[in-house]
């Protein structure tokens, strides 16, 4: 009897949940709720497996604003440029990032930085990082990145055909694996500094792997589980924090001119508004945060670029010819690029922009609502057209979610939105150019959230780096890193695709290509 009741309990819960949604009158001030069979679990499977299809299907049924259940959390989504503007342009006291993310990020980054401090302190920390990403520093990085990529091709075991094969021999490499390795090598050689780059060949690499194992959607949903991966995360955080504080200590005792362009040096020389210098553990934890923020985003983007170039040899050829035109000498040898030159390469630029449009690494940007917040009527018009003058209120405690991914592939805005077409960025009158101008508008509205004036950009349908006060500060670095990596690879390799184009793996924090993810290559005659 007891057993029968136990078996029936879940069924009863499902029935009550369904009847509640179908029969009980709903508070008309709440946004529509996405229908779901399982209480607590809600729409976790549809959202988690394919957020893009989930959002488009929900928009069809419920309009631009709706709430779905995600493992017990109530998440209200606001789609389209107006939705992005509403959430990303909102006040941090209403739409709060710390409340949404700290349980995921603080165990990984460490205490007293980013979402473990009040927003105004984090904005100061972003200002410190921007100093480290000065034009002078970026200029010093191009050559270092070229050298790391060349070294990798010349010495890594995954490129044996490149190293010892004939010019016409085709080899193969795993794109996401190679790009992950090149990304961390180049980021540590430049931003993170000499000691971290040296540690990558030894202890640092394992610490990074263990820490990264604690930065997954499971950690976002369940901050503390009695699992080995959580324990490894905590041990790695403590050791990595010490790794950096030891570096800082040593540098204080033996200042070295060579280190002047890296982020540790930049952070060691700055002060909060009240005159206090950063404490060593704050510097350490900001460095960890930057490592985590930049690694998967850049390596995923780099992977998609290489895959598309292999799949579109004519674009790869245009990119190669652009390199030949600007950088090949009469002896058939390439010279190094400068940062200013890198920024003036239209094919390379369009390839990066288009890849970030089609595959933004972050598909969902979340905040937590601190006070009941009304949704502007222009944004919340229900799909059916009924009740157009209704004003929804998002209750305190809900998560809100903006998805630049949806506006970046919305057929209402973009022609052939799912096609990877870098040339859409060449038309000065086209939608892409317009979206780009709105995002970077030099003449438009600039806001200083505490880390220097940035274009607001919250209205644009193109926002791969977010918008508003939480807008990415790694953008110029990411462009430089990706541009240099891709240009160096394309100078050396001809690429081809021999498998179907991979799909999107949404089960990781950052959207990655699904496996297998391989391309074939051969060494170019002139490199
Ligand atoms: C914020 C994307 C590379 C550091 C963001 C946000 C996005 C983003 C969408 C907004 C997050 C939000 O509003 O919650 C990307 C992409 C990258 C990239 C697509 C590469 C292709 C980097 C790199 C760094 C970095 C290389 C560090 C050097 C940051 C930081 C923030 C941020 C510090 C601020 C977070 C906040 O204010 O809450 N990034 N990012 N990112 N990113 Fe990036």
From TrEMBL:
Residues bound to heme: 472
InterPro entries (UniProt xref): CYP450_sterol_14alpha_dmase, Cyt_P450, Cyt_P450_CS, Cyt_P450_E_grp-IV, Cyt_P450_sf
UniProt entry keywords in alphabetical sequence: Heme, Iron, Membrane, Metal-binding, Monooxygenase, Oxidoreductase
Localization terms from the record: Membrane
Reported cofactor(s): heme
PROSITE patterns: CYTOCHROME_P450
UniProt GO cellular component terms: membrane
Single GO MF annotation: monooxygenase activity
Record's keyword annotation contains Metal-binding: yes
Segments forming a coiled coil: none
Similarity-based family: Belongs to the cytochrome P450 family.
Protein's recorded name: Cytochrome P450
Organism: Punctularia strigosozonata (strain HHB-11173) (White-rot fungus)
High-level lineage: Eukaryota, Fungi, Dikarya, Basidiomycota, Agaricomycotina
């Amino acid at each position: 009897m007891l057993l029968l009741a136990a078996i029936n309990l879940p069924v009863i819960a499902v029935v009550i949940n369904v009847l509640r949604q179908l029969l009980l009158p709903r508070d008309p001030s709440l946004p529509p709720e996405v229908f779901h069979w399982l209480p607590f679990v809600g729409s976790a499977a549809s959202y988690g497996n394919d957020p893009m299809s989930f959002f488009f299907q929900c928009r069809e049924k419920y309009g631009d604003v709706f709430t779905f259940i995600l493992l017990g959390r109530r998440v209200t989504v606001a789609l389209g440029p107006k939705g992005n503007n509403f959430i990303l342009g909102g006040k941090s006291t209403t739409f709060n990032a710390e409340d949404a993310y700290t349980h995921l990020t603080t165990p990984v980054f460490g205490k007293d930085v980013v979402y473990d401090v009040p927003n105004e302190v984090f904005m100061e920390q972003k200002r410190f990082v921007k100093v480290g990403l000065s034009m002078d520093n970026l200029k010093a990085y191009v050559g270092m990145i070229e050298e790391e990529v060349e070294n990798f091709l010349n010495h890594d075991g995954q490129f044996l055909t490149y190293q010892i094969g004939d010019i016409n021999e085709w080899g193969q490499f795993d794109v996401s694996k190679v790009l992950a390795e090149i990304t961390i090598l180049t980021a540590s050689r430049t931003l993170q500094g000499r000691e971290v780059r040296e540690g990558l060949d030894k202890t640092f690499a394992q610490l990074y792997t263990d820490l990264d194992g604690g930065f997954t959607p499971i950690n976002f949903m369940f901050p503390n589980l009695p699992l080995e991966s959580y324990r490894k995360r905590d041990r790695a955080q403590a050791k990595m924090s010490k790794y950096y504080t030891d570096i800082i200590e040593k540098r204080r005792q033996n200042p070295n001119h060579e280190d002047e362009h890296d982020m540790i040096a930049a952070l060691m020389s700055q002060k909060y508004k009240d005159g206090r210098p950063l404490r060593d553990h704050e510097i350490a934890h900001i460095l960890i945060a930057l490592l985590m923020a930049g690694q998967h985003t850049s390596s995923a983007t780099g992977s998609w670029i290489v895959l598309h170039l292999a799949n579109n040899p004519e674009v790869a050829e245009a990119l190669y010819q652009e390199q030949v035109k600007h950088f090949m000498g009469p002896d058939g040898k390439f010279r190094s690029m400068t940062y200013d030159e890198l920024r003036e390469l239209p094919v390379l630029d369009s390839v990066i922009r288009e890849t970030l449009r089609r595959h933004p690494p972050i598909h969902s940007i979340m905040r937590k609502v601190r006070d009941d917040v009304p949704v502007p009527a222009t944004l919340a018009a229900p799909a059916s057209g009924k009740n157009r003058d209704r004003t929804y209120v998002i209750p305190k405690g809900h998560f809100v979610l903006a998805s630049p991914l949806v506006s970046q592939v919305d057929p209402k805005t973009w022609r052939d939105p799912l096609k990877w077409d870098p040339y859409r960025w060449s038309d000065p009158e086209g939608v892409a150019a317009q979206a780009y101008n709105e995002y970077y508008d030099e003449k438009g509205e600039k806001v200083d959230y505490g880390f220097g004036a940035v274009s607001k950009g919250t209205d644009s349908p193109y926002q791969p780096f977010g918008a508003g006060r939480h807008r990415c500060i790694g953008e110029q670095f990411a462009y430089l890193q990706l541009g240099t990596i891709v240009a160096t690879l394309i100078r050396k390799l001809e690429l081809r695709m021999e498998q179907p184009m991979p799909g999107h793996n949404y089960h990781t924090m950052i959207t990655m290509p699904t496996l297998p993810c391989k391309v074939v290559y051969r060494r170019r005659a002139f490199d």
